[in-house]
Design brief:
single chain, 1 helix, 11 strands
Length: 227
């Protein structure tokens, strides 16, 4: 199986090109009995898409644009999302396993009570999103934009971030022990107190200090007029 590795974190990618696996083109993700398997769906623009109590297994979803989407109790296993615009998506109470999001927009999305296992976000835009995630296996965010994104009581102990834009991203409670933040600029993070026992490079210590000073709104004595 193919993998994507960032430092010590490796994510197993979907195996969609194996001999004997044929992906059929489908015109909807709303399959019979709530299950769609071995499929390809894409090049579609939808006003709305609601999926609940459904399964998406072994498939590719490409160039899908949805104005309003709500996913609930959705199981996604071995699926690639490529070039999709899922901005303002509300996704809850679901499990995502061996899934890739590549070149996707999830700006302003709300992902809550989502369990992640072997998941890769690559070159995705998740700005202004609210993410309440629980990683039970490896998760990688690579070259993603997470500006002003809020991680709310998340559990990302098995996650790694690499070359991501984390300006004004906020970690609001949660568990992050061992989360790998090397290779990112941390100077404008918020919620530094939540990031206990994360992994960083020594050079990033000054970035965290800068972020903490900004969060505490300190005044530097050198800037005071003592006259």
């Amino acid at each position: 199986m193919a993998t994507r590795t960032i430092r010590r974190t490796s994510v197993t990618l979907p195996s969609l090109d194996e001999p004997g696996l044929y992906l059929s083109n489908v015109t909807s993700l709303e399959g019979g009995r709530g299950r769609v398997a071995e499929f390809h769906y894409g090049d579609a623009t939808l006003r709305a898409l609601d999926l609940a109590d459904a399964q998406l297994i072994d498939g590719r979803i490409s160039a899908l644009k949805i104005q309003r989407a709500r996913f609930e109790k959705l199981r996604v296993d071995s699926v690639e999302f490529t070039g999709c615009d899922l901005s303002s998506l509300h996704w809850s109470d679901s499990k995502i396993t061996r899934v890739v999001f590549r070149d996707c927009k999830l700006m302003g999305a709300t992902l809550e009570d989502i369990t992640l296992d072997e998941v890769l976000f690559e070159n995705c835009k998740l700005d202004y999103s609210t993410l309440r995630l629980r990683a039970t296996g490896p998760v990688i965010f690579s070259q993603c934009s997470l500006r002003e994104t809020t991680f709310h009581t998340a559990d990302l102990r098995t996650a790694a971030f690499d070359d991501c834009d984390l300006r004004l991203a906020e970690f609001n409670g949660g568990t992050y022990r061992g989360m790998d933040l090397r290779g990112n600029n941390l100077a404008q993070l918020r919620g530094i107190a939540s990031l206990k026992q994360v992994t960083i490079d020594r050079a990033q210590t000054l970035q965290l200090a800068e972020a903490l000073a900004a969060e505490w709104d300190v005044t530097y004595g050198e800037d005071l007029d003592d006259k």
